[in-house]
Write a structure and sequence with these properties.
It comes from Vreelandella halophila. The chain is an alpha/beta fold and 410 residues long. It has an eight-stranded mixed beta sheet, with helices on both faces. Helix 1 packs across helix 10 and helix 5 runs antiparallel to helix 11. It starts with 20 loop residues before the first strand and ends in a 13-residue tail after the last helix. It binds adenosine-5'-triphosphate and magnesium ion.
């Protein structure tokens, strides 16, 4: 069967541009089988005739490459640095499947001058448009690049295993995504299950907890059994999806690909896709940087005295979280830096320690204004503007399923 036609891309958000269906394979914990799933699923999609791009989003260069026995040495970061072209780092794996190593290196292009940056982003867009499917193997944990990969994608598949720590880590991931405004329905793949009953039990336990405590509905994409052939495929460097498709180990990934096709046929909400998402993010970051530059010059010149008395003021503000909060944001502004998410977390903890009931109305009003400013810093997540978030939410929440191709923002 050959699915290779232009209608395979799900989304044409801007005139003339097409975004391939993008699926992020993720999961809170390391070693749950994200790379096995991403690589084997990508291989099957390629065998089905989809032009497929596999993005190795891990920070280390030790994932897909090892499983295939290819050691390119060159990654997307070398393209960013201008040492290689995209074509030079792109690795053809099989017919219809290419591998792009080092996909987490895109933010490095922030350091380029605008002409080179735009050139790089245009190359990335052109590359992406040549594919029907993009599979992203994300790094483990709650790293910012991994969250961005999920935000860029049409679908996210969380890989969990019967190991309870994989469930708690995946739970944290859903929680963080939800807190950051992610409103799509995550899919779940149960890996290393010892049969259908265990897979169902694990999924049910996880989805019940996620629904009850986070209020997020999940979608069951499928299961991959604990399988010795899969484990051994690392040393033979021959992924199971390269085997004959009648082989049971290989067959599992065909079933998973079929489940993915069913999910896609139900409609997925539009997403930016990898290249356009990063393009927007990088441009926005760059704009923020240039807006901050003049403040830096003004602030450092005029606040020497204020800085000199800082120690004393910080000391005096002990027990007064609002004053401390103002001081700390003041310091950050003086240094010309914006408040990053870790700082926000720390400041919020300080504010949460306040005795709100007894605070005078002027203090509460001032604090609420600060909260509004904080909200503008931390939400919505990059790449998901508030109106996009709402539109996706409208499509996804009512039925528990994502909006159809045509109903989201264009
Ligand atoms: N279904 C399975 N049956 C048996 N072994 C498996 C299965 N899935 C994965 N493994 C093995 O588990 C180990 C971890 O798998 P993999 O590298 O794909 O995990 P990962 O989530 O990508 O890890 P990391 O977070 O470190 O990138 C590997 O040795 C792999 O071969
Ligand atoms: Mg991996």
């Amino acid at each position: 069967m050959n699915h290779n036609n232009s209608s395979s891309a799900v989304d044409r958000p801007e005139s003339g541009s097409r975004v391939p269906l993008t699926l992020a394979i993720t999961g809170g914990k390391g070693g749950v089988g994200k790379t096995q799933v991403a690589l084997n699923l990508a291989l099957v999609l390629a065998r089905q005739g989809y032009r497929t791009l596999l993005l190795d989003g891990d920070v280390e260069l030790a994932n897909v490459n090892v499983m295939l026995g290819v050691y390119p040495g060159m990654t997307l970061e070398h393209v960013v640095l201008g040492e290689r072209t995209l074509d030079e780092v792109l690795l053809p794996v099989t017919e219809n499947l290419d591998l792009l190593p080092g996909a987490s290196g895109v933010p490095g292009c922030l350091e380029l001058d605008s002409a080179r940056r735009e050139d790089f982003l245009a190359q990335l867009r052109t590359l992406e448009q040549g594919y029907d499917r993009v599979i992203i193997d994300t790094a483990a944990g709650l790293s910012t690049p991994a969250l961005h990969m999920v935000a860029a994608s049409h679908l996210a598949a969380l890989v969990i295993t019967p190991d309870p720590t994989s469930l708690t880590d995946a739970f944290s991931l859903v929680k963080v995504l939800h807190r950051k405004g992610y409103r799509r329905t995550p899919s779940v793949i149960v890996n290393m299950a010892r049969g259908a009953t265990e897979a169902q039990t694990v999924y049910r336990r996880f989805s019940t907890a996620v629904s009850r405590y986070i209020g997020v509905q999940l979608h069951y994409l499928g299961a991959i059994w604990r399988d010795e052939t899969i484990a051994q495929s690392i040393s033979t460097q021959r992924p199971v999806a390269m085997m004959d498709d009648s082989d049971p180990s290989c067959r599992q990934f065909w079933t998973l690909a079929d489940m993915l096709a069913v999910r896609c046929s139900q409609g997925v909400a539009p997403a930016n896709g990898f290249a356009r998402y990063w393009g927007r993010l990088v441009r926005r970051r760059h704009q923020q940087r240039s807006e901050q530059q003049p403040q830096k010059a003004v602030a450092t010149g005029s606040n020497r005295e204020w800085l000199a008395s800082l120690g004393e003021r910080l000391h005096r503000s002990q027990g007064d979280p609002l004053s401390r909060y103002r001081l700390i944001t003041g310091i950050l502004e003086t240094l010309g830096e914006s408040v990053d998410e870790d700082a926000v977390e720390a400041l919020q903890t300080g504010l949460a320690a306040m005795n709100w009931e007894e605070a005078p109305v002027t203090v509460r009003r001032a604090a609420s204004e600060h909260f509004r400013q904080l909200a503008r810093v931390v939400a919505p997540p990059e790449g998901l503007r508030p109106e996009e978030g709402r539109a996706l939410g409208a499509g996804a929440d009512a039925s528990g399923e994502p909006a159809t191709e045509d109903s989201g923002p264009g």
